[in-house]
Amino acid sequence: MPDIFDVIADGTRRDILRLLLDRVADGERGTSVSHIVTELGVSQPTVSKHLKVLREAHLVSVREDGQHRYYSLSPEPLDEVDDWLVPFLGDDETGWDGVSTLPDSAAHAAEVVGRAAASAKHALESALKKLPGR
């Protein structure tokens, strides 16, 4: 399995994940490649390439319906990102021993990413609970 940090380091893949998260929040059960292409303004081969990487990292799942494929977000691998970031999210931007562990800009970036990941995970879990049959 690819390193989750390498996978989410790419901006296009983060855009795809955000789009899939937004679609879940809107009650959608999956998103087609053509919808992703239209929404992001990226070519179909580029979207397909990134979806393959996201599938291999288990960040998305695919449901086939005839000739169509619908992609959905699978947030569980983001727990690894959460686990890594938590120690850096002290209120005063210091580590557990009170000594600064990151430069201010890096601590701020880690806090923003951590909060965004937690928010995305919560939003997805809430949206999934609203789906019929859950």
Structure description:
It is globular, with a radius of gyration of 17 Å. A hairpin with a 2-residue loop joins β2 and β3. The mean pLDDT is 82. It starts with a helix and ends with a helix. It has 6 helices and 3 strands. Strands 1-3-2 form a 3-stranded antiparallel sheet. The chain is mainly alpha-helical and 134 residues long. 57% of the residues lie in helices and 10% in strands.
Quickly list its features.
single chain, 134 residues, mainly alpha
Q: Helicity range of the residues?
A: 55-70%
Strand content is 5-15%
Query: How many beta-strand elements?
Result: 3
The count of helical stretches stands at 6
Q: Biggest sheet, strands in spatial order?
A: 1-3-2
Radius of gyration: 17 Å
What's the end-to-end separation, in Å? 28 Å
What class would the helix/strand composition place it in?
mainly alpha
Could you write a compact summary of the structure shown?
The chain has six helices and three strands, in the order ααβααββαα.
Give me the secondary-structure topology.
Layout: H1 4-8, H2 11-25, E1 31-32, H3 33-40, H4 44-56, E2 60-65, E3 68-73, H5 78-85, H6 104-130
Antiparallel strand pairs: 1-3, 2-3
